[in-house]
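Exercise 7b. C-alpha cells:
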C-alpha cells in the first residue's frame, strides 16, 4: 500500500498561492499609477497649451483687412503708410482681385500687399451675386487664422481716416459688428415669391461694407440657405431691359434688386442676430442723385484732388449720428456707452485725392522725397486721376 503524501496546512497553502497574485497586483498598481501620472501630465500640457493659445489670442487679436478690388489697389501707397506704424501681429491683409492677378513689386507700391491675393478668386460683376461670393471667399480664407477677430471689408477706393492705433483700438474694444441695416418701407425690391423662404419683415437693406466680429463672419462663410435664395431671386435689371418692360401696357415695374445691398443684413435678421451689431457701416460715402433724366439713381460721389481737402475730412470726422429716413430713426455713434467716431474709413477717393491727404498729414508726417522714390514708376508724368470704384 502506497504512502499518502502529507498535505500542507491550509494557512501555509494560502500564503504560497497569494504571493504570485500579490506580485501581479503590485505590478498592475505601479503601471496604473505611471499611466495616470502621464495622462495628467499630458492633460496639463494640453490645458496649458490651450490657455496659452487663448491668452495669445486675447493679447494679440488681429484685424483682417479684406480688399475687394477689380485689379490692383490704386491707393496702396496710402495703406502702406497706414500699416507702416502698426505691429505686424495685429493685422492681416487679404485681397480678392481678378483671377490670375498677382501683387508684387511690379504691381504694387507697398510690400504689405505682396502675395496677399486669393488664389481662387472669381470674376466679379457690379450688381451681381458674384460680389457676395467674393466677399465670402475672403471671409473663408481669413477665418483660417484663429487670431483674426475682426473682419473689415474695403473697396479699392477706400482710405483710412485715422492712424492704425486708433482704428485698431476702436475695433477690438467694440463687442459688436458694424452693418448698415434698415427696413425700407418704400423698397420695391422685395419679390412676393420670396415669402415662403424670407418673410418680408426680415427683408433688410444697407451698405455692403461691413465690419464683423468672428462669430458673424463664420455665420456668413457657412451660410448655405439664404445666399442661394438671394442669388436666384435678387437680380439687377439692365437699363435696357427695364425700359423695354416699362413700355408694356399695365405692367408694374420689375424688381431691380442689388444682391450685396440685401444679403448680409437679411441673413443676420433671419438668424436673429440684429441685437448683436450696430446698424451702421464704418465706411463713409457721400451719395448724390444723377441729374440726367434717363438715370435718376443714387451714386457715391468721387473725391478727386480738389475735393479732398482737410476741411472735407474734418466734416466727416465730426459726424456724431446717422439718421435713417425710411424708419425715421437716428443712431448715435457710441461704443461701450461712450461717444465714438461714426466713420473710420471713407470712399470713393482717387489717387490724386489720396496724395493730397497724405501730403497734408492725415496719417502723420509726410516725406515727399521718400514717397516719390517709392511711387515714381506707378505715377505717369502727366498725372490723371483714376476713377475709383
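Sequence design result:
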Amino acid at each position: 500500500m502506497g504512502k499518502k503524501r502529507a498535505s500542507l496546512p491550509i494557512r501555509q497553502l494560502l500564503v504560497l498561492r497569494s504571493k504570485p497574485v500579490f506580485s501581479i497586483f503590485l505590478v498592475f498598481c505601479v503601471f496604473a499609477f505611471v499611466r495616470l501620472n502621464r495622462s495628467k501630465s499630458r492633460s496639463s500640457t494640453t490645458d496649458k497649451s490651450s490657455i496659452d493659445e487663448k491668452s495669445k489670442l486675447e493679447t494679440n487679436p488681429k484685424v483682417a483687412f479684406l480688399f475687394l478690388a477689380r485689379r490692383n489697389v490704386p491707393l496702396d501707397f496710402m495703406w502702406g503708410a497706414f500699416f507702416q506704424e502698426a505691429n505686424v501681429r495685429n493685422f492681416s491683409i487679404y485681397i480678392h482681385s481678378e483671377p490670375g492677378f498677382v501683387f508684387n513689386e511690379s504691381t504694387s507700391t507697398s510690400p504689405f500687399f505682396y502675395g496677399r491675393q486669393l488664389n481662387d478668386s472669381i470674376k466679379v460683376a457690379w450688381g451681381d451675386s458674384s460680389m457676395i461670393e467674393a466677399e465670402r471667399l475672403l471671409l473663408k480664407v481669413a477665418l483660417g487664422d484663429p487670431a483674426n477677430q475682426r473682419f473689415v471689408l474695403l473697396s479699392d477706393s477706400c482710405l483710412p481716416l485715422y492712424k492704425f492705433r486708433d482704428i485698431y483700438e476702436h475695433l477690438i474694444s467694440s463687442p459688436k459688428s458694424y452693418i448698415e441695416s434698415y427696413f425700407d418701407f418704400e423698397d420695391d425690391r422685395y419679390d412676393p415669391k420670396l415669402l415662403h423662404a424670407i418673410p418680408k419683415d426680415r427683408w433688410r437693406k444697407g451698405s455692403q461694407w461691413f465690419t464683423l466680429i468672428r462669430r458673424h463672419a463664420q455665420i456668413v462663410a457657412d451660410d448655405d440657405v439664404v445666399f442661394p435664395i438671394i442669388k436666384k431671386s435678387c437680380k439687377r435689371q439692365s437699363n435696357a431691359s427695364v425700359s423695354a418692360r416699362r413700355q408694356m401696357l399695365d405692367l408694374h415695374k420689375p424688381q431691380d434688386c442689388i444682391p450685396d445691398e440685401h444679403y448680409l443684413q437679411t441673413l443676420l435678421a433671419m438668424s436673429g442676430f440684429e441685437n448683436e451689431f450696430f446698424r451702421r457701416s464704418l465706411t463713409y460715402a457721400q451719395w448724390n442723385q444723377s441729374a440726367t433724366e434717363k438715370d435718376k439713381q443714387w451714386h457715391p460721389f468721387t473725391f478727386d484732388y480738389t475735393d479732398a481737402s482737410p476741411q472735407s475730412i474734418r466734416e466727416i470726422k465730426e459726424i456724431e449720428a446717422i439718421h435713417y429716413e425710411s424708419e425715421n430713426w437716428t443712431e448715435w455713434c457710441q461704443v461701450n456707452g461712450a461717444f465714438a467716431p461714426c466713420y473710420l474709413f471713407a470712399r470713393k477717393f482717387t489717387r490724386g485725392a489720396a496724395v493730397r491727404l497724405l501730403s497734408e498729414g492725415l496719417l502723420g508726417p509726410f516725406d515727399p522725397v521718400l514717397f516719390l522714390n517709392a511711387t515714381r514708376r506707378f505715377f505717369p508724368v502727366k498725372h490723371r486721376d483714376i476713377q475709383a470704384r
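Instructor comment: Residues 57-237+254-378 form one domain. The CA atoms of residues 286 and 301 lie 5 Å apart.
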